[in-house]
Write a structure and sequence with these properties.
79% of the residues lie in helices and 0% in strands. It has 76 residues and is mainly α. It has a domain of 38 residues. Helix 2 runs antiparallel to helix 3.
C-alpha cells in the first residue's frame, strides 16, 4: 500500500514523460488528501455524511488513477 504514495524505486529515465507522470502523480495525491480532509470535515460537522463517503471514494480513485499514470508514463 505504501507503494501507492511513494514508489519503491525511481527509474533512471528522466525524460519529459517521466517527469510529467511524476508531477501528475503528486498532484493527484495532493488532490486526494484535500478531498479526504474535506470529507473528514463533513463527518466532524455531523452533516453530509453520504457526501463525505462519496468524497472518500473519489479521493481513493484519484490516488489510484494518478499512480497508474505514473506507472505508465514513468515506468515506476
Amino acid at each position: 500500500m505504501s507503494n501507492l504514495i511513494w514508489p519503491s524505486a525511481r527509474s533512471p529515465d528522466d525524460s519529459g514523460s517521466a517527469r510529467f507522470g511524476r508531477a501528475i502523480h503528486w498532484m493527484g495525491v495532493i488532490l486526494a488528501a484535500a478531498l479526504l480532509i474535506t470529507a473528514a470535515g463533513f463527518v466532524a460537522g455531523g452533516w453530509a455524511v453520504p457526501l463525505a463517503a462519496r468524497l472518500a471514494l473519489v479521493a481513493l480513485a484519484v490516488a489510484v488513477i494518478a499512480r497508474a499514470v505514473r506507472y505508465i508514463l514513468a515506468r515506476e
